Amino acid sequence: MSRILKSTLLVLIIFTFVQCKKETSTKTEVIPTNEIKYAKGFSIVNYEGYAVVTVNNPWPKASKTYKYILKKKDGIVPDSLKNNLTIAVPIQSIVVTSTTHIPSLEMLNEEKSLAGFPNLDYISSEKVRALIDAKKVKELGTNQSLNTELLIDLQPNVIIGYGLDNSNPTLDNLEKSGLKVLLNGDWNEQTPLGKAEWIKFFGAIYDKQEQANEIFSKIEKDYLKTIEIAKKATSKPTILAGDIFEGKWYLPSGTSWGSLILKEANSNYLWQETTGTGSLSLSFEKVFEKAKDADFWITSGQFSTFKEMTDANPHYSQFKAFQNKNVYSFAGKKGKTGGVLYYELAPNRPDLVLKDLVKILHPELLAGYTPFFFEKLK
After folding, report:
1. Which of 298, 313, 333, 369 falls 20 to 30 Å from 140 in CA-CA distance?
2. Beta partners for 298?
3. Which residues in 217-256 are b (16+ Cβ under 10 Å) and which e?
């Protein structure tokens, strides 16, 4: 074999070896996706050294998808993903903007990472209130006007925000200031287990996916078990919900999570055939016409006594459920600064909400259980 041919073969062998090595080194190992079973607003795909979290429905009819790269120590993120927001995980400090985010931190034993929150008085969690009292959590103003200067001083690893529509100037300004904002759409989920499953979102940013999955699995198991218990009921009582606020009666729409959980408690919610993602807004007359003879009344968090109700509107006393003292509220469970626990914890713990409702509507099915959120009005 000629020296020229030998040299040519040697170059080809070296070139092929380098190419194979290059292809091997850039190949990314896909780890099984973290299954999201009920939530419609996000997904998690795991790779060796990093994860991709995609938030696709942070508010109703959102037209944009948000992709976040969660990079572990020494993880290598492909060039094709480097235009997306990258967060080093596990995070060490966080700012959240909704009380519904607080329980996930607590369940993951990460409440001490909370650096700031808007309207601290709304927080009910005893553990987080202790941190607030110790001056370890900063007051950040309001969601519409977050204290940007303080946030820049705090330099949290992430800020968990939420939007009601495509216009989020406060969050946009924070991003322009160099802060890292992740959108959370838990409030936009329409099923109880869909809302609760967002703990997996927080599990990912704390690099505690396995722990978050275990927590959710237990909630899911208890919720589904309670549905089966409710099916044994021999009656299906009619339900009125909500009450009047600023001249309008607000109650869950038929396709909302509030309506679904009433249905799964084996009741006949009188507006379960309506549609919509939030609340219905009706006149007193329309509600009274349809629900004056309802068996039970699940009110909002405005009232904890019958007198408070009639002081607000004497016409409440015309309902059969009021006359029979079958009115229940979650107003009694509050944090020490007045925050209503239900608003904070209920979306994360639908298993407790469902158990409460089954106990109220079919007490014989859950002997020995004491409702966690709801109490009969006094």
Report:
1. 333
2. 241, 328
3. eebbebbeebbebbeebeeebbbbbbbbeeeebbbbbbbb
In the three-class reduction of DSSP (H, G, I as helix; E, B as strand; rest coil), residue 70 is classed as: strand
Q: Give, for 265, the enclosing helix (H) or strand (E).
A: none
Mean pLDDT, the chain cut into blocks of 10 residues (378 residues total): 42 39 46 84 96 91 90 94 96 96 98 97 96 97 87 96 78 89 92 97 97 98 98 96 94 92 97 87 96 96 92 96 96 90 96 98 96 95
How far, CA to CA in Å, does 114 sit from each of 77, 84, 86, 87? 27, 24, 20, 16
Structure tokens at 257: 């999570």
Q: Cβ distance 323 to 317 under 8 Å?
A: yes
Contact, 50 vs 71, CB < 8 A? yes
- Give the CA dihedral 83, 183, 40, 101, nearest 10 degrees: 140
Kindly state the tokens that stand for 336. Answer: 């020490």
The answer to whether 351 and 223 are in contact (CB under 8 A) is: yes
Instruction: Tell me the CA distances in angstroms from 198 to 69, 202, 264, one per residue in order.
Output: 17, 7, 21
Q: With CA atoms as reference, report the closest residue to 377 among 326, 343, 339.
A: 326
Residue 248 CA, chain-centre distance (Å), reads 27
User: What is the sign of the dihedral through the CA atoms of 204, 205, 211 and 216?
Assistant: negative
Name the phi and psi angles at 229, rounded to 5.
-65, -45
Provide the pairing of β-strand 50-55 with 268-269: unpaired
Position 337: which residue type?
Answer: T
Is residue 136 within 8 Å of 116, Cβ to Cβ? no
CA distance to 49, 123, 324, per residue, from 30 (Å): 10, 39, 60
Q: Is 122 exposed, middle or buried (0-12, 13-18, 19+ CB in 10 A)?
A: middle
Closest by CA to 306, choosing from 318, 298, 316, 296, is 316
Strand partners, 68: 53, 85
